[in-house]
Write the structure tokens for this entry.
Amino acid sequence: MAILKILKYPDSTLKKISRPVEAMTGDTVRLIQDMVETMYAAPGVGLAAPQVGALQRIIVVDIDYQNPGSNLIKLINPEIHRAEGEVVWEEGCLSVTDFTAEVKRAARVEVIGLNEQEKEVRVEAEGLLSVALQHEIDHLNGKLFIDRISRLKHELYTRRLKKMLRTGKTQPESPRLMI
């Protein structure tokens, strides 16, 4: 297993729509293992394949950061089957440096995907798990959480990031867990 490089906004790969996984191969299994290791090392509670440069519909999520691996969810070709209610959650992202914002999401979701044995998996989620699943599925569709905030907040973040990149003075990333 290997820790992969996490792409950072504004990398154009993060804006592309991922392709469905047609069949499980050794490379696919290895990618999923590497994604899990990368997510835990970051540390984060979720990671989507596009964040590590692979435009495949694969996500990994584990919101139980105190017991890594005990509630790990690995989904291939996940789709939100049902969404209800509304919740506002402060989100951050491993691909969006040093920024969090409140994002409106569905309070509860049912997600259907495949596991590594290509068997259908249904995940009923609420709270952080619901938010994390929606956040990661957004990545598969070329969306970042900053695409869900006001244009003003998005522009302010983009300007700040450009200045940080231009001056070479990047602020340390938050020690909080990121989705």
